[in-house]
Amino acid sequence: MAITASGPAAADTVAVVTATEGRPARRPSGAGLRRRFPGRLTPYLFLAAAVGLLLLLTYWPAANLFYYSFTDWDGLDQTKNLVGFDNYVQVFTDPRIFSVFGVSLYYFAASFVQMGLALYFATILSFSTRFQNLFRGILFFPYLINGVAIGFVFLYLFQPGGTLDTVLSWFGVTDPPQWLGDPDIANWSLAGTSVWRYMGMNFVLFLGAIQSLPGELYEAAELDGASRWQQFWAIVVPGIRRVIGLSFILAIAGSLSVFEIPFIMTGGANGTSTFVIQTIQTAFNFRQVGLASAMAVVLLIIVLLVTWLQRRLFPDEKVDLT
Amino acid sequence: MAKKASAGIALLALAGLALSGCSARGADAADNTIDGEVKGDLKVITWRTDLVEDGTFDDYVAEFEKLYPDVKVSVEGITDYEGEMKTRLSSTNYGDVIGIPTMQPSQFEQFLEPLGEKSDFEDTYRFLNTHSYEGTQYGLAVGGNANGVLYNTRVFEEAGVTELPTTEAEFLDALQAIKDETDAIPLYTNYKEGWPLTQAFSNLGSVTNDPDAGIHMAKDPAPWTKGTDVYAIDSLLYDAVAAGLTEEDPLTTNWEQSKVDIATGKIGAMTLGSWAISQMQAAAEENGASADDIGYMAFPAEADGTQYAVIGGDYNLGISKHSKSKAAAWAWIQWFLQDSGFTQDQGMISTVAAEELPANLAGFDEAGVELMETNPAPAGEESLLSDVSNDSQIDLWGPIYRQKLVDIARGAADGDKESYFAELNERWGASVEKLAQ
What number is the average pLDDT over the span B234-239? Predict the structure, then answer.
């Protein structure tokens, strides 16, 4: 690759030099064509490195994934037998595989809490507030910590007699439940952790959108005697509708493919297994890489489908605030 | 542009081919057999990162190179050994001497150099069954372990348990006594960690003194029925959890902490292989207790009045099919098993049949426990048990179905022992019908 790239780059330098000398090239037309051809190529050559890496590291593995999903590969054997759509048939007929999507509902419900909180904080902190930047930093910070660390921190928080139980005992709660041990509560605990982690991201999205609204609108509204609450409903919400829509799509896709928090905190035990955890178990615990690949492909299709459906049901409306 | 791009991709592919071609060259040379001249570079890949870090492997290498001056040994330790090794096996570059990761016996020849006829090794070595295929041996165990229950002798004494339990009922009584008389957790499952839950399964065979228990299970349409090994093993776990004799919140267990806790008497017992003894003893010494507090007993079951303990090989050492110094690799394996002193240091059963049992299994002799090895599956059925396990998604060697068992036992999931065992039987039976003709 290095050799193919250096040739046209050198030709390009020459072209620049001649141009700066102020002598417009007057050459036989054949030579001019040859010159211009590599020149036109330059942007593509700059793209080539990035696209090449993308192809190598994203699209090539994805293509492999599709291929594996039609085989009975166990992840090790040197021969892979093609089995047609058997794996897909199993994904859709085995009730054990699809039942785990129920767990996603907890995270989906939690994502509304997450968006509500984010909108609340974003609105408050977009008006001038004391220590505004400090609070913005604090709210965004959890999103920067990696998921594994968060998993461990919350594991200690939820332990019997752990931080959460201690804090609750100050308020007179003497008999707290087992936050992860009780199957009725475990998924809520995990979804709560997820809210804590991703709220910062929604918050920054909302904050950015709110701040891009022109300030005169608020002034005009204030002159007309609108209260803060009316300003929020009439200016902020319609103004950032697109970002809310985007967050909604991310929330659906995210709750379908929850992984790291339950994987680290419970390993998918106690009824907290999600579709992705189950895919991993199928591939590496049950050595059915073919079936697991089919599950991954199905998840991809479901996410695409939901996104498409959502775009059809709630199309992007141009918002005119003036 | 399209032409250029495809040319670039072709170039990349060529480069890749050239690279992989390089590394494979020499592996098939005529003089490169395990009986050839012992020389060359040798790469040993190990799962014991602790021994690489504390310098134990440096001593092994120094001693080996003194014996074979023409060999230059380098050691590489991998933390996530199983996972990483499985990925590396798809290349040709996975060292010379490796610990063989889990694979089907029929797949040995794809990755490993044959070591010789199994029958030629039978007089010298133990634990040959798991890594031979159609009479050919592909790996030799680095050492072996006995299976049973690890316990804290001080806790048992405090609870007034003077005789070691030999049946499930006696075992549960002993655990109950620990719960009533001491502050210790009677039995620790290590549910969250997962893999410690799977250790009890290695006792398969010792309950009914049936070295073919695994072979029978692979064809049994309903193995979770009273009287089988797996029923006894899973029942013990279920009954202990259901009676409240295990840790209160299993979702927050911690393996490293559990070592300290059993060493200092906060835990009564854990079902682990004998490999764990030396680790627990070390934890005891570090935390101000005595190594003598750690005891080991056979699985609480007896067949015709005798207790049995299954012994089996740990990781097996094998030689990469793509190794360029096969003779040196074979010399390393033989020296490691016979002269390195590895098994004595680790308190493991030596693979060399003539060696005696390690001191930490002395309790077995006193209690009259008989040791047994399980039989290899007959030709054509080598992978049947794991195939049925994978197909039914009942992970015999994994924690998933046992975690569910614990959940049901502690009332965190619907059902009871009968209903769950019936469900397991149904799933297992369906796969047996599909796979075992």
Answer: 94
